[in-house]
Structures are given as structure tokens and as C-alpha cells.
Amino acid sequence: MTYAAHPLLAARLSALAAARQTITYGALARDLGWRIGHLTAALEALMDADAAAGHPLRAALCEARLAQGMPAPGFFAKAASLGFDTSDPAAFVAQQRADLFGAA
User: Fold this and answer.
1) Closest CA relative to residue 93, chosen from 22, 9, 26, 3
2) Would you say residue 104 has pLDDT above 80?
3) Structure confidence by residue, pLDDT tens digits, 1-10
4) When comparing pLDDT for 101 and 1, which is higher?
5) Residue 1 falls inside a structural domain
């Protein structure tokens, strides 16, 4: 299965953006019936697609359980590998989320 193109993932993230909400990785994995490893792979592939299309990174809507509302470190590593400036993680996530909330 190609998780990045999975319509359930895209639909769930779109609904979150429209509601101006975020979600933990665990809750999103449970919602989709996926394992965390599958979700992580899907989110990374989605980040590739979003970056290539010039869209905000939908994976920014995810929160690590103990990260005070921020995505997991892997999100920032992936974003940096895609050419994003993540030197100020809080500002980067705030901008990505603002763009997502405005686009919904």
C-alpha cells in the first residue's frame, strides 16, 4: 500500500486543518488503524509531496506526545532535508500550521 497517497490520511489531515486542530501521532495512527511505523513513513512521503507541490507540510499538524505541542524530531530532520529552515522550530511549525489553517 502507498500510504502517502492514502485518502484516509489526506482526509484526516484536511479535517484537522479545517478545524484548526492538531493530533498526536498515536491518536492519528489509531484513527487510521495503522502502526506508528506505517504512519511515520506515510507522513514523510506526504512531506515529500507537499514540498514538491509548494504546499505547507501537513505533517506539521502532528504532535509528539511529550513535546509540548510540537512534532517529533524526525519531522524537523525531514523538513531540513527538504530544504526548509528549521533553525527556529517553534516559528517553523507555527508558520506551517498558520498556512494550513488559512488554506483549509
Assistant:
1) 22
2) no
3) 455 457 889 8
4) 101
5) no
